[in-house]
Design brief:
It is built from one helix and 35 strands. It has about 400 residues and is mainly beta.
């Protein structure tokens, strides 16, 4: 039975905190510009920036040069000085004080530096490569761009580029990359390689196990990388999977599904321990924008992941079944399953689970919902339900 919840402010605050445990994604103010794909998103200090990109669904290619600043504190967008040229597929990275953008469809090896204090763009030294449709990254305030199997390092203190050791593989178009405090990581197809600037060395890492071929977004939080959405095989099929890479254990974990529309060619960046994700296309260009705030409460004896839970049918017409494949079903009796809408309102709650659990639709309206499976005080799995 659907529960309409109208609570005092204090209880509503508690509910919203519970909702934050149910799913790590929160829809924020839409990107200030037109919907687009193959744009760039970077962080500079405690602000985010999205710009450039294009639309081409009508057969006419329209590229953009507008540049927008996102302030997480006020959840607001402000248009800034345009990038010097219109283009898409450009490469970018951000540092604590500056942003760097170049290459792509309109520029070959030209790059520009953005100063957020003065709101100005300044030309920097030409890159020895001509990167396009590959994500750049930064490590300790130096920038890195890729083209083929080559990588170039930009040092802003000397305004110089240096070619570094070649990657063991050729990096595909529409690959994704993220930087941590000491390394850069590049995903190309199922391949993941770590580049350690201090040693000028490439290290093969665990192969990517997800559906995404390329065209995903990537960002890093607390030394872990996150890969979201992208296309599967050909461009027409897209995925909503969200994967986490732990470099310490050299392992991937499927941590859930993106609750918005699946897409290819989105952008993402991280600011102060939170990820931000938006734009992209599935044939329709989007300007929605989301915050990713993943903060697991700890480990639990019961571990549920995509390999031992089956949710069907999904999309749902009348009822949905949760089937668990566990070595110890007794622990299910201590678990609960909660369903929330995207506004964070609790729609349904089941206490004491069974190996096969069927939930009736009742009065749920069409749309997306988030489900949370909890044991004691720990959230052990989250996922998405779609009602048609």
């Amino acid at each position: 039975m659907k529960m309409k919840i109208k609570l005092p402010i204090l209880l509503l605050f508690v509910l919203m905190n519970l909702a934050s445990l149910a799913q790590p994604w929160f829809q924020k103010a839409s990107f200030g510009g037109a919907g687009r794909h193959r744009s760039v998103g970077i962080a500079i200090g405690n602000k985010g920036y999205i710009g450039t990109g294009h639309v081409n669904g009508t057969g006419v290619d329209i590229s953009y040069k507008d540049w927008w600043q996102y302030d997480p504190a006020s959840d607001s967008w402000t248009q800034k000085a345009d990038f010097p040229v219109s283009g898409h597929g450009v490469t970018a990275w951000g540092t604590e004080t500056r942003g760097y953008v170049g290459g792509g469809s309109a520029l070959t090896n030209q790059f520009y530096c953005y100063n957020p204090v003065n709101n100005t763009w300044t030309s920097i030294a030409n890159c020895p490569l001509s990167p396009g449709d590959v994500q750049g990254f930064s490590v300790q305030n130096k920038g890195y761009v890729l083209s083929g199997n080559s990588i170039a390092e930009y040092d802003p203190t000397t305004n110089t580029w240096t070619l570094k050791a070649n990657c063991p593989i050729t990096i595909n178009t529409w690959s994704s990359a993220f930087g941590t405090s000491g390394s850069g990581f590049v995903k190309s197809g199922i391949n993941l390689y770590e580049f350690k600037p201090s040693q000028n060395q490439w290290i093969p890492r665990a192969s990517f196990p997800g559906l995404c071929t390329n065209g995903s977004s990537a960002f890093a939080i607390d030394g872990k990388g996150y890969i979201t959405c992208g296309y599967v095989g050909g461009l027409s099929t897209v995925t909503d999977q969200v994967w986490e890479f732990n470099s310490g254990s050299n392992s991937w974990s499927l941590i859930g599904e993106f609750p918005g529309t699946s897409r290819r060619f989105p952008v993402a960046f991280a600011v102060e321990g939170k990820g931000y994700f938006g734009t992209g296309t599935n044939g329709i260009n989007m300007n929605d924008f989301w915050q990713f705030n993943y903060n697991p409460l700890g480990t639990d004896e019961l571990i549920i992941d995509a390999s031992n839970i089956n949710v069907y049918p999904n999309p749902i017409t009348d009822q949905v079944t949760f089937a668990f494949n566990l070595s110890d079903y007794s622990k299910l009796s201590d678990c609960s399953l909660s369903i929330y809408n995207l506004q964070g309102e609790l729609i349904e709650n089941k206490i004491g689970l069974t190996p096969i659990l069927t939930i009736e639709r009742n009065s749920k309206i069409n749309g997306m919902y988030i489900y949370k499976i909890s044991s004691s005080e720990n959230v052990v799995y989250t996922g998405k339900l779609i009602y048609n």
